[in-house]
Records
---
Amino acid sequence: MNNAILKELKLGYGKLVAFSVISMILVLITSLLLIGQGSVRHVPITYKEVIKATVAFKNIDGDIKIVGLVGNTGINPTLISRTGDTEYSLTVINQDKQPHMFYIDGLNVHTKLLRFGENDTITIQPKNEATYHYYDRVPILKNNDLSQPIGEFKTLKVAGD
């Protein structure tokens, strides 16, 4: 830096360095405060919670079962989601030779008619805590009978929702 400028401002090198360091610290703190309060974001920094699961229709010993593949395991698993802004994304695969349609009673959501090897994804955004039953809708359409649910879909309220 030119000595003439320092003499005119009556600053020494030490004072200039101290002033520069303090200024940079203040700029950093101000930037962090503005960014931390969301003043400079054009999108939220939190993402909507998405629960992903995959199940499949299978014929096991002559009975149609739902088998958990991803996110759930076992036969005819209880599917669990939380209420609020949570999205439950369920992929259903037909691994049986007969066509099937996954249906959740009370939420009135269902897959398309699935032929062997096909899959469909349904998205559920439960708002209330409840227990629903899921069915294979194809026999229901044929017999108009909701008496035999395959399993349960539960929505639970979690603290903070």
Note: The chain has two domains: 3-36, 50-156.
---
Amino acid sequence: MPPSMRYLIVRALLFLVPFAVLMIAQVPWWLSMIVAIVFAFAASIVFFSQLRDAAAADVQRMREGRKRAGAGPDDADIEDAALGEREDAAEAEAPAADEREAPADGADPRSTAQPEHAAQPEAPPADERDATADGADPDASARP
């Protein structure tokens, strides 16, 4: 069991045992809670400093992402390895696919493609009067 879990259990017991004893002795609950908290705090500082230091080191190690000695691989490591294998396989297939699609004359098929902006139609002017240089109504000739 990791040191942080052991420290958590010890602290919980240091609180629960005095709290239960004081509640059985019919001390008001709020006073029982205050006494139990103070007792748990003092006892953990005085008697469990080594366990507290080990728990602090364990929490720091977990925050930094390091593994505990003897721990198996994390799920994230397994997923990264699987994704890495899939990407390697896709990269190995990609050059072979490019070679099959290449024209016989050796020209790069991507070089003959038009840029993306050329395929987009030009937007109409915001106002129809902007379309004519003289400012005349463009539909005037169509009217009777």
Note: Residues 73-102 form one domain.
